[in-house]
Amino acid sequence: MSNTIERALQRQKEAQQKKLQEIAESAEETQNTITPEDTSEQLATSKATVDTASQSELEPFKLDREWLQQAGLVSLSDSRSKINEEYREIKRKLLRNAFGGLAKTLNNSNIIMVTSSRPSEGKTFTATNLALSIAAEQDKTVLLVDADVLKPNVLNTLGLEKRPGIMEYLLGEKEDIADVLYPTSIDKLKIIPAGKSHHLSTELLASQKMHDIVDEFANRYSDRVVIFDTPPLIGINESAILANFAGQAVVVVEEGKSKIGDIKLAVERLNPDMAIGFVVNKSINSDSEGTGYYGYYYTQREA
């Protein structure tokens, strides 16, 4: 398979370098034509234009670590908070499935979809926390994809501004996937937003273009984990399509709210060959070890 992402990133880098060079040359010409009568304010404005243009081309998503911690998300500081410990336990099982013995029996074992049976059960909160926790690994990188194109919430959960994403790429408005694959201020974390809404989102996600890029995600980098935040499973066609791409599924269940019938129906919509687990969210009871806020349980496909 051709290294689509690698070539795209190289083309993007070359284009950015060329544009920066053109901007610099233009600024130099402008400064050469400035007369002694020109004010220092005009000079400052010219320089600011160059700085803004170059920054907008290269600026990654800047994650405010203090804000993340205050928002109740996994902290990237040295603290051993309860939520950090919870997600350490959850991610260990997912990483073992992705790269351990079970990986040989799964298709795209390093691609993990995070979903729920119904809305508002905490799937996006779980997906972002998993991505943040995996980004702390010494030998793994993580790509977080907001595939809930009907109701995207990843950027909002992380306190980030909206940008073009996967839909713009699938629609052909962005030529390369690298144009919507954003680096972040956390070295090992990259994000692809959902982008704009579209009435053909189901067909776009089911397209060969989407299949090819997911295949690239799964196979190009041996150390990469890809987390898809997907729509709820019940009543949403997009989720059933995305389930065909992932090797693992994390179904978020809200304690005291999720109905057993809904959970069973949700699991029926998943690929039976996946490794399927549950995260019990908003638990009010703690076990003997005091880790009751989140729990992770497998329904099938144990190694």
Whole-number total of structural domains = 2
Morphology call: globular
Segments where pLDDT lies below 50 for 5+ residues?
42-56, 286-295, 299-303
CATH class of the largest domain: Alpha Beta
Strand content: 5-15%
Overview of the structural elements:
The structure is a single chain. The chain has helices spanning about 5-35, 40-60, 65-70, 80-100, 125-135, 155, 165-170, 200-205, 210-220, 235-245, 260-270; strands spanning about 110-115, 140-145, 180-185, 190, 225-230, 250-255, 275-280, 295-300. It is α/β, with parallel strands linked by helices. Helix 1 (about 5-35) runs antiparallel to helix 2 (about 40-60) and helix 4 (about 80-100) crosses helix 5. The radius of gyration is 22 Å and the shape is globular.
Topology (SSEs and partners):
Layout: H1 4-33, H2 40-58, H3 65-70, H4 82-99, E1 111-116, H5 123-135, E2 141-146, H6 154-157, H7 166-170, E3 182-183, E4 189-192, H8 201-205, H9 208-220, E5 224-229, H10 237-243, E6 248-254, H11 260-268, E7 275-281, E8 296-298
Parallel strand pairs: 1-5, 1-6, 2-4, 2-5, 6-7
Antiparallel strand pairs: 3-4, 7-8
